[in-house]
Model the fold of this input.
Amino acid sequence: MTGLRARYLWPGGLVLVCLGLLGLAAGQLVALERQIRVSATENMIWIFGQTQAEALNLALALSGDADPQAIQTRFDLLLSRLTLLEQGPQRRFLEAAGLSEPLSGLRADLLRVDPLAGTPPEVLQAHVTSLIATLRGNASLVMAHDWQTQAARLDRLGHLHRLALAAVIGAAIAGLTLSAILIDREKRLMRARLDRLRSDQLASDLTREREQSENHRQFADLLAHQLRTPLAVIDSAMHRLTRGGKPAPPDLVAEKAAVTREAVARLVHLTDTALLMSRLDSDAITPRLRDHDLRELADAVIADVRRAPPRDSDPSRIVLSQALTPAIARCDPTLTAEILTNLLRNALLYTPPASPIEVELKQTISHVTCRIADHGPGMTPGCLARAFDRFARGEGHGNVPGSGLGLTLARHLARLQGGDVTLAPRAGGGLLATISLPAGNES
Done:
């Protein structure tokens, strides 16, 4: 942090110094401009030239045959020029040049020989001739001092220009340095963000790998447990049919064949469920969405479940409510059939044999719902909260065959189609499973 502050401190200080120099140069330029404006009214060369010209004009008028009125006019003009020298802003210039003493009193001396006071022309001419000589003698001094003053001002102006240029260059260098620091800082921040994103991605991937590893381990344990029972049933049936070396009676063969088929069906269902979950985890399932009548799909699934029901289950208790209008849903029929099969088999497995299972379809503007209601013991709030977790089993159902993946698979497949699967307690006891799918265009 200290190093970072130092990196920003010296360019910032340089910027402040450059701004100070620019302010100083601007102030000096303003003052110099005011001085130049004032000097325009203090142009001593012009004043001296005009004064000499008026003195010469008066001398020429006196040497000729000019009338007294013309001589008085020239006299008044010369007097006004001398007044400017003594009383105007030029007086400060004369004092600075050391010429105020030699030129002081010229106006007063000229007033003493005013033609209106009856001064003879020859006396006035002699005085004007002396005045011309005095002005000519000091004009070169005034010009030299004016040049020196202007040269000093030009030197100051050049110095201020160089100062302003140095300040601008310094500010530009500081700005470029700050820009480079900010760009470097932005690059560092971008790299830090990328590193953080990579770190988050790696952490997410690691978490996912751990979850998948844990899921695989749990599934391996589940397979080991779930496969053992149907295999043991098949093995026991085969031993019973071949025991004693005598042909088994037909009724025993039929009984053991039914047991074997039911065990094989459980194995096939477990294998299909495992394959579907694996494909879901690898995003290998792409639903083919089309408009289908969900009532026809429900009829077909119920017929399949009735042909191959879970053991000790009465599939005739599944009742589909009848309606005159179809329920058109935008869905994949294969995936939707898998969802219905899992929910119906769960209802048959986890509810008492005499408990009816009611299937009801409803159509709305945006969705089609299929509600499967049973009259069994239902689920506790804790079981409902984790019902869709992988390998979750209901309380007291440890001896019921199942993988604990049916509800997880059903919700994943429904959401893959833009729908959902929910569970809720049924009013009056039991459980209500609801499948919601987007309504089709024909609805």
